[in-house]
Please model this.
Amino acid sequence: MQEKVLMKGNEALAEAAIRAGCRCFFGYPITPQTEIAAYMAKRMPKVGGAYLQAESEIAAINMVYGAAASGARAMTSSSSPGISLKAEGISYLAGSDLPAVIINIVRGGPGLGGIQPAQSDYNQVTRGLAHGDFHVIAFAPNSIQEMCDLIFDAFDLADTYRMPAMILGDGMLGQMMEPVALPEPHEVSASAKPWAANGTKGAREHNIINSLYIEASELEDKVLARYERYRVIEEKEARHEEFMLDDAEIVVVAYGASSRISRNAVVAAREKGIKVGMIRPITLWPFPKKALADKAPSAKAFLSVELSMGQMVDDIRLAISCSKPVYLASRTGGVIITPDEILAKLVEIDGGIK
Amino acid sequence: MNKRITIFAGHYGSGKTNLALNYAFHLRKKHENVVVCDLDIVNPYFRTKDSVRELEEAEIRLISPKYANTNVDIPSLPAEVAWVFRDERMQVVIDVGGDDSGAVALGQYADDIKTSGYDMLLVFNKRRYLTSSSEEASEILRDIEKISHLRFTGVVNNTNLAKETTREIVLEGEATAKELSDHLSLSLLFTSFEESVDVSEALRYSKPFPIKIFRKPGWYIF
Model:
């Protein structure tokens, strides 16, 4: 374990990405994630990597496509409106089976919205990121240490399953500072990507990276093969954390910043004698359905706590097959929910189920 | 340290804002007219304006960008800033944005600041990644001086690891801060630490400056 240092979320993400072997970063500034690009601008040249401030978000994601196609570990980052702009490129990455990491430090929306923290891109990342049949693996860290650790997993899983992975942070996680133990750098072998378009050296056939298929049946086969991989991912890669869950009658479901706030509310509710626990999704896709389904029989109600308008509620209902009521406690638009607001909701639910 | 203007500058995240606030409260014990001037044009979330209530209660004036803490992401500074350099009754504490990019805002007032007389303090935190050594901190110092057209006059040891700060961490920071100040031929003025981490007796090269941590209201995440 290395000596702990104090880091801001955004710079920790950038440094961890470099340590995970990322040597190509293309970005465009937007609050509240600008420090990622600023950090990369300073550090990449020192580690022999490439940093480029693109002329737009769209250019940046397409540069990621090029670098990923050549087998490099490539990354871009943005905040909500910028991710919408990158959406087309992310669909092309998925359609070309290219691994890449995209960071979204979410701010209030829709439209230009605001610069304060939000979680209102949940639906976007778990469903409608862009056109076509595809998924991205979405990680939702809730501490700066976890952001550092998950970025390694994001790169590794993106490579393993040949698909884009996203770290969904929020403005709060991007901007706050915490002590972290930075993970040790790890070596990435270029030879592990036999599909990469990195020069035949006259020794093999050309590798072609492409998302256009002339025959419908050929495209269908590609999509079906991809969905077979998605099925494996849903089975193997869903992650969550449990807190005071064993005897819980009300289950709070919260991720990222709102899970930290919820934790305070869970403790406060326990002090009032209300049996509350929490399931914190660490991956949003795949959603930790099994953990919720397993808990459903002994739970009386679920409460989704979000900095968005109930975007996670349907996933909770689906995971528990609508077997128990699912309530919502939320603030949005960049307003941060307080533990007291969550506690009030828990007291209200508890009153109703007795 | 008895100039009318005190500037806190350094790496972003080194603790400038918190230190500037504490220093203003410290000055207020002796002076009637204390003003905190927020020249941070780079940090969107954590700013002196978060502590506006405490400052008002202590009758410390705050001058901050008009749109601080709103969704207007525009680095405009109020005209009042120019006034504080002219009014000689004022004790001015300036909180500068991080790194050289944050110091851009300072540069335009350099002539006024020089005329009034100033102390510019480099805030050093050994536990901040990439500025933990004397060499790295010197590099930041040179970048800031170049952009601000002002010279640092002293070093402050603000070494901390947030909630995990220990006595040893502060003292280790003090030793490196001493090395840094010697290397720069500046004096190491004081070591700041949260009141609960009592190291006053153990400091070897600097005066103790116990501080209070000002937290952003409404963010119950810690």
Summary: Chain B touches chain A at residues 12-13, 43-46, 71, 73, 101, 125, 127-129, 132, 160-164, 218-221 (CB under 8 Å). The first strand of chain B starts at residue 5 and ends at 10.
